[in-house]
Fold this protein.
Amino acid sequence: MTSDILIFAEQRSDRVHPAALQVVTPARALAAQTNGRVVACLIGDKLDAAADAIDKTGVQALVTVSDPVLARYSALRYRTALSAVVQSVQPRVVLLPATFMGRDLAPRVAMRTGAALATDVTGLRIGDDGGLDVTRPVYNGKALCHVCFPQDRCAMATVRPNAFVAPSGAGGAARESLPFVLAPGDERLDTVEVATTSGEIKDVTEGDIIVAGGRALKSADNFKIICELAKALDAAVGASRAACDAGYQPHSRQVGLTGKTVTPRLYIACGISGAIQHLAGMRGSKVIVAVNTDKEAPLCKLADYCVVEDLFKVVPLLTAEVKRLRG
Amino acid sequence: MKILVVVRQVPDSTTVIKIRPDGGDIERAGVKLVVNPFDEFAIEQAVRLREQRGDVQSITALILGPAAAAEALRIALAVGADDGIHLQDEAFDRLDELQTAALVAAVIKDGGYYLILLGKQEIDLDSGQLGPALAEQLDIPHVGATVKLEVAADGKSLAARRRIEGAEEVVRASLPALLTCDKGLCEMRYPSLPNLMKAKKKPVRVVKAADVPGFAELAGVVGGTVLHTFQPPPERPPGKLIGGGPEQAARELVRLLREEAKVI
């Protein structure tokens, strides 16, 4: 085992996932503690733009595994590729973004390489005993758990999106490419199509800013004012379970326990009272705004800013104000 | 085709979580326990496959936990599973998620299961490790966060849709395979009272550590994380109330978000 920190720089169509760039920040802090290097690993087909993007975060080395059969994600081929990189680099710690791909891939690679794993972590350090110590939210964010790793095996973690800010660096990392060697049976699983579901608006899990609406919107048509504010802020649109169950918005936009967990830097909840199941999905947001006529609603209690006004009047005015300031 | 459904028992999402004074765990007394919501989708999907197809021989539900976890197993049996496996031994409590996956694999590997279904994550520790790790240990394909499933007529392959950021992936896999289930796949039917009574008579095999070949070596091979302490999340400072009419409130909020919070 070396002192190096390996990061999985998830990319799709040669674009690095923003959450993967953020993972470099805790990787650099850990590498400062272990006196090791930060090594980034890219897996896919055409990887030139992705390699340049990850290089600009200041990683020390870059390992690429490029092959036409890796153009689309497959849990089997990607676990084979990433496990081979882990065995080649022999890192002390492996970090992945806690995205759909990272969550899907990390347990397989940890199992295959005999590592230990914690998922969706928000804090990391090398403990006094030399093992990795991490913090992760549990029980829908109602508690934090400190997890300790054994010192004698590779430690893996997936890092919660937006828990860290992506760094910038000098570039010019040493680049190495490893051939992809298919493992027997990898052909048993294939992604045959990627169908976009969100249209022109950003997916709710990708939003730096999210504008969400609840049942108080009263109809799918009324959600227009939410979408317009989102557009002005370059934000994603979210919705409560009640709003999705009523058919105002698709379930792909549902934020909450059985929907999506989001951690944007700004979450604007309009007409959402804040059932526990909704709070579970957005409690990790940096700044929370509630727009609600009932200042006793649970979401107003949680919010940093609570606008006690009629959302149908105030939301269009917010849109106008944002547009005015952004020219 | 034999189907296995993995079920977890978790605190109800509306439960107030209190941490024990020593920080070693949450207070377990008085916490209402339910079937993990994502595992409910897995139970229902298994039963629907049997209703749609003629080739489903059996549905087995597996749970890991103390004697009280039998209650969650009974719900799976009432909804449609034929028999149960209950992994019940204090020695299992010390295993982390990957070691648990290795344990489950050791118990079921000779069971001839062609399709394994479970929820995409457990809503207590939210780790989501068990499904993909179990598939790796069994060396079979898996599809994570499945929202749609079609098993081919010949029972040899499946097509599934899985949720990713802003899109869905259409995935094909050969069987045997494992699927983790996400919201949108299906909703579990309500177990009727007569079926809950009948479920009591369905066979449940209790598995102890001594029944698992190679159990002593499990922990030495993989995993080994320890849940050290729990603490409450940091308190958020009290928020600011903004009013004074829609025009003033809109202006004031945008000003605060720019100048104070610096987020827009």
In short: Chain B touches chain A through 85 residues (CB under 8 Å). Residues 37-52 of chain B form the longest helix (16 residues). Chain B has two domains: 2-221, 234-264.
